[in-house]
Design a protein that fits this description.
single chain; alpha/beta; TIM Barrel; 10 helices; 41% helix; globular
Length: 258
């Protein structure tokens, strides 16, 4: 039993996919992936995901505005985020965070958006999903200043062990994507071994970042199996142990029935 803790189901190209989104879900289920968290990147997307989760009883969603969305989005208000997060099957706030790699010129907008997401998480008691790239110190600083009681997850983690330690100390989980399978990701694999098993999640971030051996193809939730197998091999445990631990972690973080 596996969970894809971070995917973008509404961004998949389904034009040539037998069965459309249902086909994607069924292919994942056939490989033991039982639940999915489809993560929002803007306000319109947050609303449409609420409708999507009504179609599938094993899909959850979040509400939030990605840090690279300034070109199309005003800073989301705390009140707007909370209102959307009260809808059924919404289990998280985000994804949000800071990205100096792709969009350093919008950092002021990103910072205020990040703060608003953290405050919404604090007020509604739902965990926050964090994207960070080339902004380690300020990301941790804001996480400390506005630490949500419900915690959260550093998604698609590619940063240092030092940053992982700081996030763990704040009660956050660390999620690994298909990047951990890449030949160039040796340092990330070293981090992946150090994170306590009870604080790890696995994800695809599909449709992007397909793991080995599927690189060059559209990523799908079914490929979280490859991520999990890589993580199990790194830690010297069985796939079943890794799957059970990450599923338990997902349920605990997002306050779902075990």
């Amino acid at each position: 039993m596996l969970v894809d803790s971070h995917c973008h189901l509404d961004h998949l190209d389904l034009s040539d996919r037998d069965g459309g989104l249902s086909g994607v879900i069924h292919s994942a289920e056939a490989r033991g992936v039982t639940h999915f968290l489809s993560v929002a990147v803007d306000i319109a997307n947050s609303r449409s995901l609420i409708d999507l989760t009504a179609e599938f009883d094993n899909v959850y969603s979040s509400v939030g505005v990605h840090p690279l969305q300034k070109t199309t989005q005003p800073v989301p208000s705390v009140e707007e985020l909370i209102s959307l997060a009260q809808q059924p099957r919404v289990v998280a706030i985000g994804e949000t965070g800071l990205d100096n790699f792709y969009s350093s010129e919008t950092i002021d907008w990103q910072r205020q958006s990040f703060i608003n997401h953290l405050q919404a998480s604090q007020q509604i008691g739902k965990p926050v999903i964090i994207h960070t790239r080339d902004a380690r110190e300020e990301t941790i600083q804001l996480m400390r200043e506005y630490t949500p009681a419900a915690g959260g997850v550093m998604h698609c983690f590619t940063e240092t062990w030092e940053m992982a330690e700081q996030a763990l100390a704040l009660g956050f989980y660390i999620s690994f994507s298909g990047i951990v399978t890449f030949a160039s990701a040796e340092q990330l694999r070293e981090v992946a071994v150090k994170v306590p098993l009870e604080r790890i999640l696995v994800e695809t971030d599909s449709p992007w970042l397909a793991p080995v051996p599927h690189r060059g193809s559209q990523n799908e939730p079914q490929y979280v199996l490859e991520v999990a197998q890589c993580m199990a091999d790194l830690r010297g445990i069985s796939l079943e142990q890794l799957a059970q631990a990450t599923t338990d972690n997902f349920n605990r973080l997002f306050q779902l029935p075990v």
